[in-house]
Amino acid sequence: MTGHFFEGAEKLLEIWFIASNNNNDLDNDTLSNDLRNIPRELIEEVLNLVNCKVLKYAKSATTDTYVLSESSMFVFQTHFVLKTCGETTLLHAVQPMLELARDYCGFDIVDQIFYSRRKFLRPELQKTPHTSFEHEVAYLDSIFESGCAYVLGRTNVDCWYLYTLDKTSVSTKSDQTLEVIMTELDPEKMKIFYQEYTSSASEATKKAGIDKLFPNAKIFDYLFDPCGYSMNGLLPNGHYFTIHITPEPDFSYVSFETNVPYDQYQEIIRKILKIFNPGKFTTTIFGDTAAISLDRQRKLFLYSDYGRIDHQVVCLVDYDLFYSYYKKHPS
Amino acid sequence: MTGHFFEGAEKLLEIWFIASNNNNDLDNDTLSNDLRNIPRELIEEVLNLVNCKVLKYAKSATTDTYVLSESSMFVFQTHFVLKTCGETTLLHAVQPMLELARDYCGFDIVDQIFYSRRKFLRPELQKTPHTSFEHEVAYLDSIFESGCAYVLGRTNVDCWYLYTLDKTSVSTKSDQTLEVIMTELDPEKMKIFYQEYTSSASEATKKAGIDKLFPNAKIFDYLFDPCGYSMNGLLPNGHYFTIHITPEPDFSYVSFETNVPYDQYQEIIRKILKIFNPGKFTTTIFGDTAAISLDRQRKLFLYSDYGRIDHQVVCLVDYDLFYSYYKKHPS
């Protein structure tokens, strides 16, 4: 398999909408402000532009969820999350999604946007506009006003990029997100995610212990041929979690993401580390500015076996963003 | 003056040394570990490589100070600070200074380094290796191990770059630094720094109120022809402050820097704002990790007339670094 490579690192886009003309309470014959009104075939057309396909689709009372050939999509009433890995061109979804949101849901105002990703392992393989963060920022700046581009971490080692809008958001206030990005994973743990060793997605989910993370989740999982794994988990109250695994030893990569409340994050991260045993990992946490003590945050989120090499805080308009980079102690 | 431009934004280098063989207490005939032993003509040769000249030289019991044609240099026993603006090539000083420190002072170990600068107004005018932060980082990575490159602020608006080493430092523990970088300055205040309106450097210092900032300072100041101003101020206990002014309205720029203790910073910044009345400014503060409450820091350092647009914290090995960006409220 000389030369074989897959970029596990995802591009992650989250867009929140509001309508200048509120139609939430109207009956079904009228245009109502809900992104889930966008016909599924039109969502799939947008995903074609990004170069990925729908593998599984499901819905709950609050959430439409898609397992994709390259990662995942979640669609809620007023926002969506699209996460795509490999050489996909995620930003090509932005303009079409804005148009669909306007035409099918009456959402004429972008309330907030978050675009983020880790530094690619092999940036030279990416397609326009993902060839550099500068290009991605220029692309987004051509669509949005008041965009802010940040780089967290060490630009000459590992780093993480974020683009967001400098504005007070109406709808995102009570939201929070945790992302854990792991590299240099334990090859023994990664074997679970090869069809050679595991016969089905649900077997992989159980073997790894992913089903125990949130016992009340509805899980939609997929085991790729010959290897690789994706899962979306739906939880009550519009909460979700999603895991994507590139198990090949030369470029192993696992991402975990959830929007469950902040107070669960330390415990969740402990469980994730036990499942995947990474050599290095970063955590990014978006939390409500008012609710978090920076000093407490600094003292918490320390894990035995790992040194916290980097810890950065960015105070955004409505959020505090915490970026931490951890490395396993030499054994 | 069509096309006239000067890049006020300085490159700032600080290097701390230690000796594996400690000779601090030996008599003068022996090599003693003190950077002030480097012959002045050799320092001037290094400055030639950087493309700047010495305009004024003075010394106190703790500090050698140079006012340069492009900014300033301070030499202490175990560290030096070199700050150069315009199209100077400051990083060309690194390797020669390491050699001089080794040969004349027995300093064979670099204890810590800080290289920083604001985003240039016109990066395309800079000379190698300052044509981009990536190039600067590659240059420094070729000299130092364990270098970490950070970007603070918004890469698509205003930002500030830092390169430092990922190591516990022996000598820098009790040090701290405040830098205030101001743009869009009050043209009336800037008039003081034109020879047309002010006949001497000391008159400019008094008119502006710079002499009142630290009443016990020894001030070495310089008024350029036709405009522009630099000053170095020496204080007791190895403390200093330095101000550099590019007054032209199209690209006005003022920097202030000091190493006096952290508890004075809020009050100093208030005074500085009153003197210069900038439209925008950034503050960068390096302070002892153990001494600072991040939550307190967040609540302090707010100034009437200005909104704090960005606030970021980087927790380094021995320091907390605070970056804040302020913009004047529309009047």
UniProtKB/TrEMBL annotation, chains A, B:
GO terms for molecular function: adenosylmethionine decarboxylase activity. The record marks E70, S71 as: Cleavage (non-hydrolytic). The modification Pyruvic acid (Ser) is found at S71. Substrate binds at F6, E70, F224, E248. Pathway: Amine and polyamine biosynthesis; S-adenosylmethioninamine biosynthesis; S-adenosylmethioninamine from S-adenosyl-L-methionine: step 1/1. The keyword rRNA-binding does not apply. Keywords: Autocatalytic cleavage, Polyamine biosynthesis, Spermidine biosynthesis. Pfam families: SAM_decarbox. The active site is at S71, C85, S230, H244. GO terms for cellular component: cytosol. GO terms for biological process: spermidine biosynthetic process; spermine biosynthetic process. It catalyses: S-adenosyl-L-methionine + H(+) = S-adenosyl 3-(methylsulfanyl)propylamine + CO2. PANTHER family: S-ADENOSYLMETHIONINE DECARBOXYLASE, S-ADENOSYLMETHIONINE DECARBOXYLASE PROENZYME. Belongs to the eukaryotic AdoMetDC family. This is Adenosylmethionine decarboxylase. It comes from Rotaria sordida.
